[in-house]
């Protein structure tokens, strides 16, 4: 059972889990926005995420959730506003630099190297950490071999989190859907993130797979002590795993609070269900 999180206000008027109060937030978004095709896809988005917080980002279809992820990872450059990652302004960084700075993500549509093995998919995410040059790789020099052995061991260790080490040599594209989802999370973890973004991780899963996913997300959170933001339409998963929930509608935050707060929030109910017609 999920332990109830106590939230407390911080000087910026954000709320954070009490366990993260005395540490710098991993993420601060201030008046973040982007205009796409003349439309404000995201506008005045403000969110502060504690260093070990699990946050659900929810909202109706088209609310701007994936656009927020694309802004955080610099797939899109913001039209306005500021993103602070571990206290550092990310203005001008590209997607590769953002990943190196500490944000990793998975996607709505699985993006694995399907013709590579499971273990090679994970090792591909460690490229930034490799300390050999192209000549060393071509000539298979000792430092190349050392780095490759170390990367292989670490990849197997990460795969063991989800009990996938025994299928390390299997082609990724041949895995069942749920296993491909897990592999994508392992690959994201291989970049040593301080913030993990999960874009609809339960999409296409049956109830049993979703329950396993919930356990795996908790395992990752507890083992690595990192922050996680997940976009998800499965409200049972969101309510049972998230410390806090941020609700988007038409690109703007309409509520943030504990699962209990969100379930009772009139603006959230209206965004999902629509305004009740007034009785004549």
Content of β-strand: 15-25%
Order of helices and strands: EEEEEHEEHEHHHHEHEHEEHH
How many helices? 10
- Supply Rg: 20 Å
- Give average pLDDT, whole number: 88
Structural class per helix/strand content? alpha/beta
How many beta-strand elements? 12
The description of the largest β-sheet is:
6 strands, mixed
Contiguous uncertain segments of 5+ residues: none
How helical, in percent, are the residues? 25-40%
Oligomerization state: single chain
Amino-to-carboxy terminus distance: 45 Å
Q: Largest beta sheet: what is the strand line-up?
A: 8-9-10-5-11-12
Shape: globular
Write structural notes for this entry:
By secondary structure, the protein is α/β, with parallel strands linked by helices. Helix content is 35%, strand content 23%. The protein is built from ten helices and twelve strands. A six-stranded mixed sheet has the order 8-9-10-5-11-12, with helices on both faces. The longest helix is centred in the middle third of the chain and has 20 residues. It is globular. The model has no long low-confidence stretch (mean pLDDT 88).
